Amino acid sequence: MRRALLAAALALLPGATGAPRVDAARLLEAAPAPKLADYGLFADAAGRVPAPGVVRYTLNTPLFSDYAEKFRYAWLPPGTAARATGAGMPDFPIGTVLVKSFGYPADFRAPDQTLRIIETRLLVRREAGWVPLSYVWNAAQTEAVLKRAGAHIPVSFIDAQGRPRSLDYAVPNTNQCKQCHQQGTTATPIGPTVENLNGGLDGHGENQLAAWARAGRLTGLPEAPARLARWDNAAEPLAARARAYMDVNCGHCHSRAGFASNSGLYLQHDEPGLAAQGINKRPVAAGRGSGGHSVAIAPGAPERSILVHRMESNEPGVMMPQFGRSVAHEEGVALVRAYVAQLKAD
Amino acid sequence: MRNHLFLLLAGAGLASLPAGAKTLDVAAGANAHERLQTALIEAEPGDVVQLGAGRFALTSGLSLDVAGVTVRGAGPERSVLDFTGQTGEAEGLLVTSGDVLLADFAVENAAGNGIKSKGSDGISFVNLRVEWTGGPKSTNGAYGVYPVSSKNVLIEKVFVRGASDAGIYVGQSQNIIVRNSRAEGNVAGIEIENSYNADVFGNVATGNTGGILVFDLPDLPQQGGHAVRLFNNQVIANNHPNFAAPGNIVAAVPPGTGVMIMANRDVHVTGNDITNNASAGVMLVAYTQAFTDAAYNPLPRAVTVRGNRYAGNGTAPAFPGGKEIAAAVGGTLPPVMWDGVTKFTVPGGAETLADGPIAVHDGPMINLNLGTHGTPPSAAQPSVATVLASATLPEPPTVVLPAAQEARAKAGR
């Protein structure tokens, strides 16, 4: 019924010639499409309505990107399924595209109104591996074009507390995409791990893993899949929330195969080593990023912890992550501060 | 013709010889960042990104992730990547691919590190200048040139000034040559850390807090630093006040340090001119902090110091207790100082002795005789030895880079 309605609605769109469809062959071509619309991922020109088969998903704990609202979708070639291998990133079939749009409502107190989408990023699973692409939307919100060298876009909005804010939003260049997505010699998605999908869409309703499995889009799920805490759910344990937050916001680089492997600081939510977690760990190449502090995490003392200092900073050469934000995430910092404060110094 | 020949030789080092390698010219001027970054993304293996003469005003960091690319300027005084207005990213230029040559340009006033390579196999920094033009300041970036987790590293004819950590820093890398370069007015001039097989020669380190450092630190993916040769360098008047951010290991380096070897094995310090470093000409020390890493060895061992020329060192030692120790031996420290730490306890394990001697042939040397790791300097029982090692330790092998890498570094010069 809904599908029929959608089809009827689409028929009314100017220039519509039948139902929208994802162009599977175009996705696999080596040369990226100059326009996002060439891939047929959306039913509308403004990129708000996903095409049939393009499924929205959400994460328990997302990456912070300068307060941007994010809209995530996955499309798998018809008849294929992702294969879970325990926890971590499922093995997505060739032809898969993961889609993420970044945007700002004019006023975060009314997030559904006057949304401006800045960019839409794609990760396309090709034969040779995952390929990152980024498309930047025009002001009229009618077209998104490929940008390989990145872009800086001024953004203004009223935040959730009613404060007017302005920032310089950075669209990553191709190399920066890889810097975060590279693990060892291969690129990989970061978000849709089994743990991070393990919850309802927008935090309620049917579990997304179950829904994907039921739709035949995900196989191999273990009996009781691991789950990443929701960073902003006060009902969950503080340490689990903070470590989930650091895993998603820091762990893509701070892992043994990531860009920051040489730091010896590994922020996966299940990392067992205390020094590797940063606890009483001295810096190796922090430079002035140390802020004069001696260790990454000083248990019980966030004000003496390099990790907190770098999360709070907005200064290049000091701030962490090194890019992907221009302002600090106040709520994320508060969470990690609270976590460090309750760690026992021994 | 000569150049073409070298290019062919260079190309032989790549996995496959690129057909139709081209030059992408990038001029200074408006929109420099986008044009240069686009060239660095669109370059293909074998290509040259040629920087024009002039000042490239850049507000964001640059990065290169294509193997086999050369980035070449018109000279370190003529092609200047100026990051004075940098608002994003932690490096001026970041390289994450292999078989890369960076030559003949300058990087000024990067917000973080000047030029970093991570995970590169075959990375050459040749005839570059990396400088914080306001001179030594704690707000300057940490490292000038910074290859890390890299292999086959060449640093040649590079000038670095003003780094708030190390001017030339090689971390967790293997097969390294640092030659004919100059580090001036940094906290550490040249630092080789957690690295294997490094030849450091023909360099000048002057006006830094510490001239040349060879360190090993715990809790890192590559540790057990070894096989480092420092020879024929000039290590002169490294007496700058330490301006590193506290918390970093180099913040503990006393002003007036010529050469410092910490927690490494098979290190040879030979034939250097080590002059007017007020704390000590050569310091051989154990890692001073407590550690929990059971795989870590905090001791310097199998270290040879031989045939160096010393003058005017140790006149005003700036490390804790240094003044008193100097007074006890007549006011001036001998040119070589060893803390005398010869044993440590493996965390959760047994007491372990140094697996190699300290062989100082040229002294005199002062031995603080601290004995066990963790003994405070206040417990020093200094003794001065004038006749030193007789047995010679085997020298680490000469570092040899792939011939194609060396040839390519020479081409176009």
Question: Can you walk me through this structure?
Answer:
Chain A is built from nine helices and twelve strands. Chain A has 346 residues and is α+β, with helices and mostly antiparallel strands. Chain A has two domains: 24-219, no CATH class; 238-342, no CATH class. Chain A has a six-stranded antiparallel sheet, covered by helices on one side. In chain A, strand 10 and strand 11 form a beta hairpin. Chain A is globular. Chain B folds into two domains: 1-12 and 21-186, Single-stranded right-handed beta-helix, Pectin lyase-like (Pectate Lyase C-like), CATH 2.160.20; 211-399, no CATH class. Chain B has helices spanning 2-11, 32-42, 322-328, 403-410, and strands at 23-26, 48-51, 54-57, 60-64, 70-72, 79-82, 88-95, 100-108, 113-118, 121-131, 145-148, 151-161, 166-171, 174-179, 182-184, 188-193, 196-201, 204-206, 210-215, 226-231, 234-236, 257-262, 265-270, 273-275, 280-285, 301-306, 309-311, 336-338, 341-345, 351-353, 358-360, 365-367, 371-372, 383-385. In chain B, the strands form three sheets. Chain B has a 19-stranded parallel sheet that branches. In chain B, helix 1 packs antiparallel against helix 4. The longest helix of chain B is centred in the N-terminal third of the chain and has 11 residues, at 32-42. Mean pLDDT of chain B is 93; it is low at 1-17. Classes of the chains: A alpha+beta (346), B mainly beta (413). The interface between A and B is large, with 45 and 52 residues.
